[in-house]
Amino acid sequence: PPPPPPPFFQAEDGIRDGIVRLVGSEMCIRDRSDRMKYKGISLDVAYLEQQLKTKIALISTRKNKGINELKELVASYKELSTKPCLNASSIDEVYFGNLRKAFPNQLLYKLWLVITQDVNFGKTDRKNIESVEDFKTKSKTDLKRLQQKETIKRYQFINETLKKGQTIDLASAKDLRIKLDRILTHKVWGYLIFGVILLTIFQAIYIWAEAPMDFIDTSFAALSEWTKNTLPEGAFTNLLAEGIISGLGGIVIFIPQIAFLFLFISILEESGYMSRVVFLMDRIMRRFGLSGKSVVPLISGTACAIPAIMATRNIESWKERLITILVTPFTTCSARLPVYLIIIALVIPEGRILGLSYQALTLMLLYLIGFGAAVGSAWILNKILKIKSKTFFVVEMPNYKLPMLKNVALTVLEKTKAFVFGAGKIILAISIVLWFLASYGPGDNFNNADVIVTKQYAVENLTEEELQQKIASHQLEHSFIGIAGHAIEPVIRPLGYDWKIGIAIVSSFAAREVFVGTLATIYSVGSDEEETIKNRMAGEVNPILGGPLFNFASGISLLLFYAFAMQCMSTLAIVKRETNSWKWPIYQLVIKSAFAYIVALVAFQVLK
Predict the structure, then answer these.
(1) Distance set, CA 58 to CA 26, 96, 497 (Å)
(2) What angle do CA 302, 303, 308 make, to 5 degrees?
(3) CB of 550 within 8 A of CB of 540?
C-alpha cells in the first residue's frame, strides 16, 4: 500500500480551499480522459497544477492509459507542495491575525475547526496575551457569517480556476447524450419532436385501448342485465343493476386509456426525456412570467392537479408559485379524460387525415387548449399581481437510459389504482344517492306514472316494451332528480344541454370523472335494455334542436366547458391549503366557471 498521505492542512498562513490536493483524490482518478473527449471537455493540466499546487493524472481504465503515471505520483507524494491554494483568512485578517498570535504553535485551520465545529484535536497550547484587547472572542452569529464567507470564497476560487483550466466544446463532443440533447433541446426541432411524441401518444391511446374498452362496456351492460334477471325484483336489485353497476361501469371503462397515458408518461420520465422538456419549455415560460420550474406542475397536472399544485413548493418566488397554483387546474388532468373520451366518441367522426385519427387530433387539441389557457392566464396574472420577485432556473439533466420495466409497471399500477379507487369511492356514494333521487319522487305524476302514460298513449299502438320505456321516462322526469334538473335547466339550456346533463355537471363538482358515471346511472334507471353507456347517450334527444342531444354543437360546447371550468372540490381544498387563504380558491371557482360558461355558450350558439 502507498505511504500515508500528508496532513490535510500544514500551512500556517491561510485556510485550505476545500479541494483535496492528494494524488489519488477525486481530481486525479475520476477525470477519465476518454470520457472527457466524448463530452468535449479538455483540461489545461499545467494551469490546474499551478493553481491547485498538486499533480494531476489523467487516466482511462477502459484504455489502460495513465495508470503507471498515477503510481509514480503516488510513490513520490512527499514532493508535493504543502502551500495553500487559497488564503481564505483574508475574510477577516484582523481576527485571524489575532488568532495566530494567541496560538502560535497550532495550525490555523485546526484552530478554525475547533472554534466553528467543536472538533477535538487534542490538547492545545495557549500563549498568554499581553494585551487582551488584541484578541476578542466573536459571537456565534459572527462566526456563522465568517463560515459563510469562507465557503463563498472557496467556491469562487474553484469556479475561477475551472473557468480558465477547463474548456467545454459541445461542437466537438462525441457523447451520445450531447448529440441527442442538441436535437431534443433545439429551439425548433425540440418543439417539433415534442409535438410528434404527444400526437403519437394520443393516437396510441385511442387505437390500443379500443378493444379492451369495448369489452368492459359490453361486460358491465351484460352484468347489469344479468343482475336484473337473476336476483329477486325489488329496490335492492334495482340499486345494484341501475345504480352501483352502471355507475362504476362509467369509470372502469376508461382504465385502459388512463393506464396507457400513465405508461407513456412514465417511460418519458424514466428515459430522462422529461427533464429535456422542462428545460425546453423554460424558454417559453419566461415570456409569460413563469420559469421552467413551473413546467413541472403543469406537466404533472396531466395526471392530477392536486399533487401538481403541491409540487409548486420547489418554486422559490412567491409570485411565480402563486401564479402556477392558480393556472395549473387549466391543464387537462386524467379525471377529465373520461368526459373527453365519451363525448369525442359521440360527436367526432372516426375518419383519418394523413393517417391520424380525427378523435386523437381532437383529444390532443383539448390538451393544447388547456395548456394554452394556463400560459395565457399566467401572462395576465403576471401583469395584474404586483409582487416583485426574481428567480433563476436550474435543472439537472440526467443521462439517457432505457426505462426499467419494473419501475414503469409499478408506476402505471400504482397511479391507475389510485385513480380508480380514489374516484371509485366518490362514484359509489354518488351513484347510490343519484339512484335514490331518480327512483323516487313526490306527487301523483311519479306514483301514478303508469296510469297517466297509458291514458296519454291510448290511441297509439305501442308495444309493451315501448309503453314501459315511456313510463320509465315519465317517472324519471318527475323524480326528485328530475325536478332538480328542470330547476337548473333554464341556465344550461343556452349551452345546448338538457336537465340530465345539468345534474351530471353539478354532481361532477365532487370529481370530474363522476360526469360519465352520473349519466350512466340516470340513463340506466328504469331501462330494461342491455345497452352500453355510449349507446344510451347516443340515443338521447336534444330538447332545443331535436335530433341527437350529443351533436357536434353541444358536444364541442361541453368539451370546452370542461376544459376551462373549475369543477373539483379537492383541487379547491388543496389551493386553500397551499395559499393559506380562501380568497384564491374562490377567485378560481368564480372566474373559471364564468369563463367556461361564456366560451361554451359562444361555441354552441355559433356551431348550432
Answers:
(1) 11, 37, 73
(2) 80
(3) yes
List pLDDT tens digits, range 424-472: 666 667 677 777 877 788 878 888 888 888 888 777 777 777 777 777 7
Give pTM, 2 decimals.
0.56
Phi/psi zone of residue 137: left (φ > 0), alpha (ψ -120 to 50 degrees), beta? beta
Kindly write down the DSSP assignment for every residue of 545-571, as one continuous string. Answer: T-SBSS-HHHHHHHHHHHHH----HHH
Whole-number Å distance between alpha carbons of 63 and 33? 10
pLDDT digits (tens, 9 = 90+) for 289-334: 777 677 767 876 776 677 678 767 767 778 888 888 899 888 887 7
Nearest-angstrom CA–CA distance, 271 and 586: 39
Residue found under cell 424558454: 283
Q: How far apart are CA 150 and CA 17, in angstroms?
A: 8
Q: Give dist(CA 487, CA 491) in Å, integer.
A: 9
Closest by CA to 242, choosing from 33, 64, 434, 454, is 434
Cell numbers representing residue 277 in the block:
422538456
8 A C-beta contact, residue 415 and residue 262: yes
**Does residue 498 contact residue 549 with C-beta atoms inside 8 Å?**
yes
In the block, which residue shows the cell 478554525?
112
Work out the pLDDT band at 130, boundaries 50, 70, 90: low
Those residues whose C-beta lies under 8 Å from the C-beta of residue 216, and which sit 6 or more positions away, are 249, 252, 253, 255, 256
